[in-house]
Specification:
Blueprint: E1 4-6, H1 8-17, E2 24-30, H2 47-63, H3 83-93, E3 97-103, E4 113-114, H4 131-151, E5 156-162, H5 166-176, H6 194-205, H7 210-213, H8 219-226, H9 229-242, E6 246-250, H10 253-267, E7 277-282, H11 283-286, H12 293-300, E8 305-308, H13 318-324, H14 334-345, H15 349-366
Parallel strand pairs: 2-3, 2-5, 3-4, 5-6, 6-7, 7-8
Antiparallel strand pairs: 1-8
Helix pairs in contact: 2-3, 3-14, 3-15, 4-8, 4-9, 5-6, 5-8, 5-10, 9-10, 10-12
Length: 367
């Protein structure tokens, strides 16, 4: 149920080490104005919906299905929010969840840890965030990585994210770090909008002096120019936690971009144990033929890429079957939480699907 696509030996070692262990789940929320651009993302039918996607997803993740949530899940063009997958699993496995606000236009209506970040401007400005904010958010991530590692002393930490437009900031970060990522990232669309993403990234990078001049490259400068607040937080949190426990970066190309940032920081003297870190996603991302997640992981060389074998092909719900047609694919740590269900309790495909469908039934009854 957990195929390994790259660095198979290291991935197997990691899975063996944490089999039967209950993890904790940190979900880092961020925002970039890139997510408001027309057609950039399917994580919300309109730009106004996408402004609230992260806080609605976080509310559902923590509270479950409620009759009158403060921020209802935004309508998607097709499919169902991946937070329903994550919620079903953390509820069934009793996984502790910690929500972090790395920089949102509106704070979540649930108990969360506010890191005093700010939303990022659009990638195309080349001035996404002030560099001092990026460095501050990295330090906050580092601190909380240490704190959370104490709560899972012999286990591992799942780190997920919710950033609408985040695969575009991922492409921008990777490109800024001189990592070849053109046509490799994914999207929430069934056909990845590579050309649109690339034009936005190029517009942002050409606004920056450092992109063509700076040696050695300043990783925080890249995030400041074309990144988002989640990237700095997760890089700090994962590096810090990896010194004590295992880390599962729960996501696809967004987390591969964070891993690329972590590699660069380690090469430039940051502490951290990259051999304790894996990236875990859904097979819809890993096997998406309109992107190249596996190729991107191979470009990064050291990272084991894992996926859950979860399938919705036999689901009774068209919202879930839409995943099999390439819609949504991943988000809010859905793939990582599914991997945890296989690792911790040895759940089969049938058990996992049944648990998710039960939650969707609750959701359908209320809506």
């Amino acid at each position: 149920m957990i195929p390994i696509y790259t660095q198979i030996q290291q991935g197997n070692r990691w899975l063996h080490q944490y089999q039967g262990k209950r993890p904790a789940f940190a979900c880092v929320l961020g925002f970039t104005e890139t997510g408001l651009l027309p057609q950039i993302s399917a994580a919300g039918a309109t730009a106004e919906d996408r402004r609230y996607t992260a806080i609605a997803d976080a509310e559902c993740l923590v509270n479950g299905i409620q009759p009158h949530p403060k921020y209802p899940l935004p309508p998607l063009t097709v499919g169902a929010s991946p937070t329903l997958i994550s919620r079903a699993i953390v509820e069934a496995l009793d996984i502790p969840v910690y929500v972090f606000n790395a920089g949102l236009p509106t704070p979540p209506a649930i108990s969360h840890i506010d890191l005093a970040g700010i939303p990022a401007q659009c990638v195309s400005t080349g001035k996404a965030l002030p560099q001092e904010t990026v460095e501050y958010l990295f330090a906050q991530g580092w601190h909380w990585g240490e704190v959370l590692a104490q709560t899972v002393s012999d286990s591992y930490l799942i780190i997920g994210e919710c950033v609408v437009g985040g695969t575009t900031t991922a492409l921008a970060l990777l490109t800024g770090l001189r990592i070849a990522a053109t046509n490799k990232v994914n999207s929430s669309h069934p056909q990845c909008n590579h050309q649109q993403k690339w034009e936005i990234v190029q517009a942002g990078l050409t606004q920056t002096d450092w992109y063509f001049q700076q040696t050695p490259l300043n990783p925080f400068g890249v995030v400041a120019a074309v990144g988002d607040p989640m990237q700095a937080v997760v890089a700090g949190m994962a590096l810090s936690a990896s010194r004590q426990v295992g880390v599962l970066l729960a996501g696809g190309t967004q987390m591969l971009a964070v891993y690329g940032l972590m590699q660069r920081l380690v090469r430039q003297g940051s502490r951290g144990s990259l051999e304790q870190v894996v990236v875990g996603t859904t097979r819809w991302v890993a096997e998406d033929i309109t992107g190249d997640t596996v190729g991107l992981a191979k470009t990064l060389k050291e990272v084991p890429l894992l996926a859950t074998g979860l399938s919705f092909a036999t689901s009774h719900y068209p919202q879930l079957k839409a995943y099999e047609a390439g819609y949504v694919k991943e988000g809010v740590g859905a793939g990582g939480c599914a991997i945890a269900s296989h690792l911790y309790l040895g759940w089969s495909q049938a058990q996992l699907l049944n648990t998710i469908e039960q939650l969707l039934q609750q959701y359908a009854q209320i809506h």
